[in-house]
Design goal:
By secondary structure, this protein is α+β, with helices and mostly antiparallel strands. Helices cover 26% and strands 26% of the residues. The protein has 2 domains: 4-125, D-amino Acid Aminotransferase, Chain A, domain 1, CATH 3.30.470.10; 137-290, D-amino Acid Aminotransferase, subunit A, domain 2 (D-amino Acid Aminotransferase, Chain A, domain 2, Alpha-Beta Barrel), CATH 3.20.10.10. The chain has helices at 29-33, 55-68, 77-91, 162-174, 218-229, 241-245, 277-290; strands at 9-12, 15-18, 37-38, 41-46, 49-52, 96-104, 118-125, 137-141, 179-183, 189-192, 196-201, 204-207, 234-236, 249-254, 258-265, 268-269. The strands form 2 sheets. Strands 8, 9, 10, 11, 12, 13, 14, 15 and 16 form a 9-stranded mixed sheet that branches. Strands 1, 2, 3, 4, 5, 6 and 7 form a 7-stranded antiparallel sheet that branches. The structure holds pyridoxal-5'-phosphate (PLP).
Length: 304
Amino acid sequence: MTDSKDKLKVWWDGQILNFNEAKVPVLNHSMQYGSGIFEGIRAYETQKGTSIFRLKDHVKRFFRGMKIYDIKIKYSETEVQNAIKTIVRENGFKSCYIRPFVFYYDDNIQLPTEGKMTSLYIVPLPLGKYIENNNGIRCKISSWIRIDSYILPVQAKASGNYINSLLAVKEAKASGFDEAIMMDREGYIAEGSAENIFVVKDDRLLTPSLDSSILEGITRDTVISIAKSDGIKVEERKIHREELITADEVFICGTAAEITPVINVDGINIGTGKEGKITKMLRERYMDVVRGNDHNFEEWMDYL
Ligand SMILES: Cc1ncc(COP(=O)(O)O)c(C=O)c1O
């Protein structure tokens, strides 16, 4: 390793390892077949110290993903929450991104998982902006359709799901865009490669409902709660492609991406072609909430 990860400490099945000591077998199942389950969590610096935002909800989703694939680990949700806190503390981070990953620790080519052991590691790492260009990004509607329940469970953050996202984002970048927006097989808007999507229309917020082919994003839920607390109407329903193009504002959101304005889709400006006022307000409110400056949402703070 030559980059700054050299100094990272990793939690691995109860042990604290140096990043360079954390090695997996070359033929592990999850690397070959995409059977790893992961989470993406952020810790923020607050006035009361470091807080891991919505830690319990992230760990709950992590366990739901494992249940979907019948992956068993020897830790409870509380133990995983504590392990996450421990490793953030060990690294001395005030703010960071946290990647828990559960995978089959084996070294053979057998696809069936009966009898295979699982392992859990947790890597915290410094992360500023996940998507550069906070002033707004340009998106391409992907020619790749979002995976859906005919194919794979979209509610599991399984590593294999992300080769669908990867194709979409590769296509978008190769065509000169910043990010992809994926549609479902019925032609409705689904989500970004690793973000949920919101549309602002006549001061209302629209977002694909949970019966769509989307991950049930924790940021999506946070945004809905903040908007409702500010008296903004939120509609969760199917969204047509043309509603995106004719929207007043569009933004994508996720733990890594936070709230990122979308100012152009397929070369067409959204609204004024700049971040809109509702997006800006929600983005600022979101950052206040995660940094513990909004006491109405104190229950989402998990201090180290
Ligand atoms: C496919 C997908 N959709 C949406 C999201 C946003 O989810 P969250 O807000 O829980 O990070 C993510 C990020 O994890 C994702 O990978």
